[in-house]
Structure prediction request, 468 residues.
Amino acid sequence: DPLETSAVETVEALGKFLPDVDRPNEGVFAWQEEDTDWLALRYDLTAPLARVAAQYRNDLPSPYRRYAMGPVWRNEKPGPGRFRQFYQCDADTVGSASVAADAEICAMLADALEVVGIPRGDYVVKVNNRKVLNGVMEVAGLSGDDKEAERGIVLRAIDKIDRLGAEGVRALLGEGRKDESGDFTKGAGLSHWQAEAIMAFATANYIIENRNYPKRGEQDTDQKEQYPERNEWSLRYLSEIVRDSAIGAEGVEELRQIASLLNAQGYGPDRIVIDPGVVRGLGYYTGPVFEAELTFQITDEKGRPRNFGSVAGGGRYDGLVKRFTGQDVPATGVSIGVDRLLAALRAKGRGAGSSVGPVVVTVMDRDRMADYMGMVGELRQAGIRAEVYLGNPKNFGNQLKYADKRGSPIAVIQGGTEAGKGTVILKDLILGAKIAESATLEEWKDRPAQVEVPREGLVAAVQRMLGQ
Prediction:
């Protein structure tokens, strides 16, 4: 079901970026009304959902599925492709602890990308589980409240493995790392065995991705056991590195169930993969986490090729609604960055489309404006975008320039002569432009760029021209 929430929330409802006295605008655009609570522009669509789910928990069905789309705001420094206001499209299920809800979100995300024009093979939905990471931390002796600082350093280090490589991350897990400029970053101070336990997880994605996997349907029963598909092999690998942790084993089993449910619906590892490399946001989520990555290459501002990257992310956040109710309320969902997705479609030549502007009815006589607006009304009644020229009609050339800027396919012209004959002239602006480019094009020879038709046949004639 669609759900629309207010752009303004109390900071208590937003929670995550609650302003303090010294930094009242940290993370969000916030202000304080006189003698009232702090208010802020929403920074995502999930926190408002949690507030609504708690406020109307007795009225909403359970489980409650909702989708929403709208602007959100972040009080951060803008940059290339990074804005203070941007659009998100979210889908969530509140009230279900079943991994089937997580699997449904993953399937919906894959389907949504294909529907908007991202073909199979140009994207992958990656799935991990916070519980697996908790298991890794437990195996490494980093569980417990007293190890929170070390866990934070470890998470940040793992997140940098693509940039720093295995040795760079290993250094950050130990005493620290000195970069090329000589700056030193203090590490987590882990022992050798602790660091190696973490590295088994940090390098899991590299190990998994560099295996050769058979294509779906190519194996017999014995081969499937010896040469499993990617998702099955990922699960086996993760099971091994968290074998001494109950919470880690629980996380792997949840991933196994998700993969099984998706596989039964035809969502194999060519679309949705178990990927230990998904670590962003693991401090926020409580179970499965998802990320949609576009795998095709684009050229950056310096002319270098690079993968487009992530356009969506989400996961299970069972603790969010509890902030309001004090009771456990399971929830899972995903957020799509609409602006990034549109940028991806444009990069692939799929976002711009060939949108046709309105048919423009030109004005040849100010005193006959009612007649011209009558033409516009007839065209609109027929479902055709149309508008009358409202500028100074003295210069007819300016009217055609306006129509060109509007991307208009047709200009409707009726001067005194045409009105006397009961006709209108339809000027094909698209064809006229092509003829102007090259008057010898064979495909345009037999089609005039301008036709005169009876006034009563205006709508039918425009429909024919648009159909061509």
Summary: The longest strand covers residues 288-299. The chain is about 40% helix and 20% strand.
